[in-house]
Design goal:
The complex is a heterotrimer. Chain A is α/β, with parallel strands linked by helices. Chain A has nine helices and ten strands. In chain A, helix 4 packs across helix 5. The model of chain A has no long low-confidence stretch (mean pLDDT 91). By secondary structure, chain B is mostly helical. Chain B contains 13 helices and two strands. A two-stranded antiparallel ribbon of chain B has the order 1-2. The N and C termini of chain B lie close together (10 Å). Chain C has one domain. Chain C is built from eleven helices and two strands; from the N terminus they run H-H-H-H-E-E-H-H-H-H-H-H-H. In chain C, strands 1-2 form a two-stranded antiparallel ribbon. In chain C, helix 1 runs parallel beside helix 5 and helix 2 packs parallel to helix 4. The longest helix of chain C has 31 residues. Chain C starts with a helix and ends in a 10-residue tail after the last helix. The relative contact order of chain C is 0.18. The chains are: A alpha/beta, B mainly alpha, C mainly alpha.
């Protein structure tokens, strides 16, 4: 396949009188780390909701790997290879980090209508689960902790491990740095740098330092549409982007 | 290890119960214990959806009652010699009637579950309650099977090698089925299926992000659970030799839920403890006063408000894992 | 034609009773997030109090006041002692605790009044019939119930759409956490809403007295139908409660009126009547299933 991995065409979504997504166009190419940035209220969350399948768009198309997935339910998109992480971490809080990852491995292995064998002691689930957690940067000593007892940074790492379990072609990361301290942020940046090239990433992030350090290309979302797209250098020099961010700081 | 020995001792005591009751001069205790074992099967089945799956079904008495009516209807047709709907001959063979009960419970749970599981939270509670009430009214109106008067069953089912007219043998049969059913549910809870079910309880959104649509898993759990409740209902009708729409009454659904909560939500043995406790409590209170519900109500209230985790957490406090 | 009109009015009248219960229940759920099974008990308490006072004094005004006062008092006590502790709990705990309340209230009423149903006379000044169209008389009492339903619906609409309290109620139903976060005196709002719900349930109970018999268990029977109303209408929405109540009231009444005749065409008399009664009781649940298939969140979902 030579085209873009993810292609969004003229996406529209209104909530009452508010145009949250207003003609959004976006392309993510295989292997690239593409950052989607924009001031608060630009419509990033609505865009993510539509890409992942939690929000139904009013109009427009979403193509993934050349196939139209606009009306596909969220779970089916994941099985096609479009994994995501949540801004507000969504883990199974009663379960350990390892059990969380093991369930993700299990989900990636196909259906779970298996009623007899004990899944909680199944090495074919637990071994890959530990490997995933390690890949996401969680130290082995923390694998047996209940997810609810992990620190914010560790929870983000588990979240990343779960997203990786499906062997995705595209990873949609929704503010992986949000709520992290400076050192945790740096660790996450390094982890993402390690993932770069192995899988295409659409990174939605407020931490500009991380975005400009990691991204191959950046799209800037304002009022529900992309006003500029290009390399970090081009974005930094763009007068439209400056205007959007500066006016935002003035409080509109 | 210690837990296993304790469980084994408990099981031995349960097996010895009819002899102990006989020796203590209170043979009625065997009948009481039979009812406890049967309710334990129903409560353990409900626990699969309620405890592991987090689905608050307020309509499980419907499946309990359907199981009972499967036995009653097959008995009525066995007695009259006419086939049910002109197709299915009546029967009093227990393996046949129990199988029929589980089939009836499973099929109806599949239909009602498929509809109810489209809703969430409090709507799910209301809708399961409403559908159970619908079946209640259906059986109230079926005059051919006794209507609201119910149906007497003059002969207990026949089970190869057992004489179920003997209270002790009926008790052992129910105890045996309970142990088998608990073993099966435990396996299911630990299986891959059980992991998805528990995951769906904690976060449906997370499961979708893992690529799992939880609806079919919940539905299968609901069906299994309905089959278990129907099995219990079938045994109950054999024990009481009577079936009536009261088995499907909404308050019966409430009692089953209370057993699960009282014993310990989402634990393997909690529902058994809860069934023993609630049946015992009702028996004890009704011996004291006709208005025992006046006392039971506030007790339930106190349990819900102040005793988190149920009896199982009490056991765990005494015997740490 | 005259029969159809009469049955339709009966349906609307049942719908009014259901609306009075559903409006309170759905508001309490919408604002406090509590599912209160004992809502039906308030209806029963209102009915018993009114029946008892009516039998003692013969005054229907005093009976009405007594019914309302008893239901409101029981409701506030219920909120203060039990429900207040359950706001932060899950639905399961709420269901079980209020189930315990039902056992308590039902058995308490049995202790006080016995198992025999009480019968209440229609107030004499509402005793006659009114000719709604020439040749079709209809009981004045039932018309009064319908009028009362209209009045309450208008009052609720006014309260919710036109007053400051109503604004909080509306905001509370759609953005519960936000209203909490804004530091509104939420306790007072809760008590007000709960008291209002109890009052409406009591009113329904008082009005039900002369139509149905007043007995233990009457609360749960209507409560379950109220749940059907709420599922159909969409939870948390008063408009939905109104629509659902009318739909359920009409479906139930018309099915009961016309199914026996329809079934007698294909089977024998008594069997047909029994089956028809059963099927008619099931009718509203079928309706609920159909609505759910089309719109899982009901006709007018509040948390859209």
């Amino acid at each position: 396949m030579s085209g873009p991995l993810l292609r969004i065409e003229n996406l529209q979504k209104r909530f009452g009188g508010l145009r949250a997504t207003d003609g959004l166009d976006l392309e993510v190419w295989p292997g690239e780390l593409h950052a989607l940035i924009g001031p608060n209220g630009a419509g990033k969350s609505t865009a993510i909701g539509q890409i992942t399948g939690e929000i139904a768009p009013d109009a427009g198309r979403i193509l993934f790997g050349g196939h139209d997935i606009t009306r596909l339910p969220a779970a089916r998109r994941v099985r096609r290879g479009l994994s995501r992480s949540f801004q507000v971490v969504q883990l199974l809080d009663d379960a350990t980090a390892e059990a969380n990852a093991a369930l993700a491995v299990q989900a990636a292995q196909g259906h779970s209508f298996r009623f007899w064998r004990d899944a909680t002691r199944d090495e074919s689930l637990l071994a890959p689960a530990r490997a995933l957690l390690a890949r996401a940067g969680l130290p082995a000593a923390r694998h047996a902790m209940p997810a609810a007892g992990l620190a914010a940074g560790e929870r983000k790492q588990v979240e990343l491990a779960l997203a990786l379990a499906a062997s995705p072609r595209l990873l949609l990361l929704d503010e992986p740095m949000a709520g992290l301290g400076a050192s945790e942020s740096r660790a996450m940046t390094e982890t993402l740098r390690g993932l770069k090239g192995q899988v295409a990433i659409l990174l939605v992030e407020h931490d500009m330092e991380a975005v400009f350090a990691l991204a191959d290309r950046i799209s800037v979302l304002v009022h529900g549409r992309v006003i500029a797209a290009g390399t970090p250098g081009a974005i930094r020099a763009s007068p439209e982007v400056r205007a959007a961010y500066l006016s935002d700081e003035d409080g509109l | 290890m210690r837990d296993r020995i304790l469980l084994l001792l408990l099981l031995l005591a349960a097996i010895a119960l009819p002899w102990l009751a006989e020796a203590a001069g209170s043979p009625a205790t065997t009948g009481l214990a039979t009812r406890m074992a049967i309710y334990a099967i129903a409560a353990a089945s409900l626990n699969l959806v309620l405890g592991y799956g987090g689905l608050v079904s307020f309509g499980h008495a419907a499946y309990f009652g359907l199981g009972g009516y499967a036995v009653g209807i097959l008995y009525a047709h066995w007695r009259s010699g006419e086939a049910f709907l002109g197709l299915i001959p009546g029967s009093i063979s227990l393996p046949v009637t129990l199988g029929a009960a589980m089939l009836a419970g499973g099929v109806s749970a599949a239909i009602l579950g498929a509809l109810s599981l489209r809703t969430r939270g409090v709507q799910f509670i209301m809708i399961t309650l409403a559908f159970a009430q619908m079946l209640f009214f259906l059986f109230v109106s079926l005059k051919a099977y006794g209507g609201d008067e119910g149906l007497s069953i003059r002969r207990r089912g026949e089970f190869p090698g057992l004489d179920l007219r003997d209270a002790a043998q009926l008790y052992w049969l129910c105890l045996g089925i309970l142990v088998l059913w608990l073993g099966l549910l435990r396996r299911v809870a630990h299986s891959r299926f059980g992991q998805v079910l528990a995951g769906a309880r904690q976060s449906e959104r997370r499961m979708a992000a893992l690529g799992v649509a939880v609806y079919p898993y919940r539905l299968v759990a609901f069906i299994l659970s309905g089959m278990g409740a129907a099995l219990a209902g079938a045994l109950m009708v054999n024990a009481l030799r009577f079936v009536s729409p009261d088995m499907m009454h909404w308050s019966k659904s409430g009692e089953l839920m209370i057993m699960v909560i009282l014993g310990g939500l989402g634990t393997a043995l909690g529902p058994v403890l809860g069934a023993v406790a609630l049946v015992g409590l009702e028996y004890g209170l009704s011996g004291l006063t006709e208005h025992w519900q006046f006392i039971l109500g506030p007790i339930l209230l106190l349990v819900v408000m102040f005793a988190r985790g149920g009896l199982m957490s009490l056991v765990r406090r005494l015997l740490p894992a | 034609m005259a029969l159809l009109l009469e049955q339709c009015l009966n349906g609307v009248q049942l719908g009014v009773m259901l609306f009075l219960l559903a409006a309170g229940l759905t508001l309490v759920f919408g604002i406090m997030g509590v599912i209160n099974l004992a809502h039906g008990s308030l209806y029963m308490i209102g009915a018993f109090a009114a029946a008892w006072v009516a039998a003692r004094t013969g005054s229907s005004i005093l009976a009405l006041l007594a019914g309302l006062a008893a239901a409101a008092a029981a409701g506030m006590a219920m909120e203060y002692v039990v429900l207040r502790r359950l706001y932060a709990r899950g639905h399961l705990d709420q269901v079980l605790a209020t189930f315990g309340l039902i056992l308590f209230f039902n058995q308490g009423m049995t202790l006080l009044f016995g198992r025999q149903p009480l019968f209440v006379d229609i107030p004499p000044w509402l005793g006659g019939a009114v000719e709604i169209i020439p040749g079709v008389p209809y009981p004045a009492y039932r018309l009064a119930i319908i009028a009362m339903g209209g009045l309450v619906a208008f009052g609720l609409w006014f309260l919710i759409q036109r007053t400051r309290t109503g604004m909080l109620v509306r905001a509370g139903a759609t953005h519960r956490d936000m209203v909490r976060a804004l530091g509104v005196d939420i306790r007072l709002l809760y008590t007000l809403v709960f008291g209002l719900g109890a009052l409406l349930a009591g009113l329904a109970g008082v009005m039900a007295g002369p139509i149905f018999s007043v007995q233990v268990g009457m609360g749960e029977q209507i409560l379950i139908q109220t749940f059907v109303v709420i599922v159909i209408g969409g939870i948390g929405s008063v408009r939905g409660a109104m629509a659902g109540a009318l739909v359920v009231g009409l479906t139930d009444t018309l099915a009961r009126a016309y199914l026996p005749a329809a079934l007698r065409g294909v089977m024998q008399g008594p069997d047909a009547d029994a089956l028809a009664a059963g099927l008619a009781s099931m009718g509203v649940y079928f309706l609920m299933a159909v609505v759910l298939l089309a719109r899982p969140r009901g006709l007018f979902p509040a948390h859209a």
